[in-house]
Amino acid sequence: MGRLTTHVLDTMNGCPAAGMAVSLYRLEGGAPALLKQLTLNHDGRADQPLLADAGLLPGRYRLAFSVLPYFRGRGVALPEPAFLDEVPLDFGIADASLHYHVPLLVSPWSYATYRGS
């Protein structure tokens, strides 16, 4: 059964990014179509798969992570404008029967991602 999951690790503070807002979009044709908005749990994860089973279709998607509000909420003093605000990650799903895990490692000044397991 295919599914899409994510989690975020705060590399500045060495902890999960609990409370970070995330939006999921499907990218097809014109403007991105918003599929879901959520807030990450205490472990920096979504409580449920973002998409699963029949809801997971091949195609292009975007996860948009609200990095600036998260770090400001933790009391991090950042310049105006901040270096990072929202981090958009565009990715493709080729085989909807597989598990696609899209983690984000983030600080106020950098980020990295990969296809996890």
Question: Describe it for me?
Answer:
It is a single chain. The chain has a single domain (3-111), classed as Transthyretin/hydroxyisourate hydrolase domain (Immunoglobulin-like). The chain starts with a strand and ends with a strand. The mean pLDDT is 96. It has 117 residues and is mainly beta. It has one helix at 67-73, and strands spanning 3-10, 15-16, 21-27, 33-39, 51-52, 59-66, 86-93, 99-106, 111-113. A hairpin with a 4-residue loop joins strand 8 (99-106) and strand 9 (111-113). The chain contains 1 helix and 9 strands. The strands form 2 sheets. Strands 1, 2, 5, 8 and 9 form a 5-stranded mixed beta sheet that branches. It has a 4-stranded antiparallel beta sheet with strand order 4-3-6-7.
